[in-house]
What we know:
This protein is α+β, with helices and mostly antiparallel strands. It has one domain: Beta Polymerase, domain 2. Helix content is about 35%, strand content about 25%. The chain has four helices and six strands, in the order αββαβββααβ. It has helices spanning about 1-15, 45-60, 90-95, 100-105, and strands spanning about 20-25, 35-40, 65-70, 75-80, 85-90, 115-120. It has a six-stranded mixed β-sheet, with helices on both faces. Helix 1 packs across helix 2. The radius of gyration is 13 Å and the shape is globular. It starts with a helix and ends with a strand.
Amino acid sequence: MQTELSSLVVDALEELKGRDIAELDVSRMTSVTDVMVVVSGTSSRHVKALADNVLERAKDEGFRPLGVEGEAGSDWVLVDLGDVVVHVMMPDARKLYDLERLWSELPNDLGRHEAVGEHHS
């Protein structure tokens, strides 16, 4: 189900031309989620549209979102789908918080994580 959900998320982001889509397998580092998807939007409106499209597509396929953080006009919206958490960010926020590096350097008992795939649009 996680693979199906992360594929749905990536498709929804690609559909609206999300930039630099990265999927990170964090299942060995946290029990909160299995996959984080990080994507950049070109404007605050684009960030909101990307997040809204992910929510709409997930609901259409029967997935129930657990929550959304961030609001219209913000530079970062988080969509929590349980097994997959989506971070839709403006490029400056993405660069500042550098989630990809943060999660790759987070210590865990089973060794470093490896990205499950990266897509660039």
